[in-house]
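I have been asked to look over a protein record a colleague put together. Thanks in advance; the entry in question is below.
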Amino acid sequence: MAAIKTANVNVRIDVNVKTQAEAILSRIGLSRSVAIDAFYRQIIFHGGIPFSLTIPESKLPACEEMDPAEFNQMMTAGLAQAKADDSFDMDEVFEELEAGLEG
């Protein structure tokens, strides 16, 4: 059997993006290199980037787009929601996501 040739890919990425992405990859059992290989294969399969590169419409403005009063109002509403236990458990959300990937 012939040896498969491999190549290195070197990139610079924001440390927070790397940390968050690798934590998710770890939870689903993928190494960084396997994830990058899968991404490259999807680029080949799709003949381009395998997802939309558009900016989605957002109901929530970015922090920089709000004045202090608007920001405080949004944070107060979020605190009230958290105190009312009107939220989702993070572990349960990831379990649902992982189940969706497996099924």
Notes: The chain has four helices and no strands. The two ends are 34 Å apart (CA to CA).
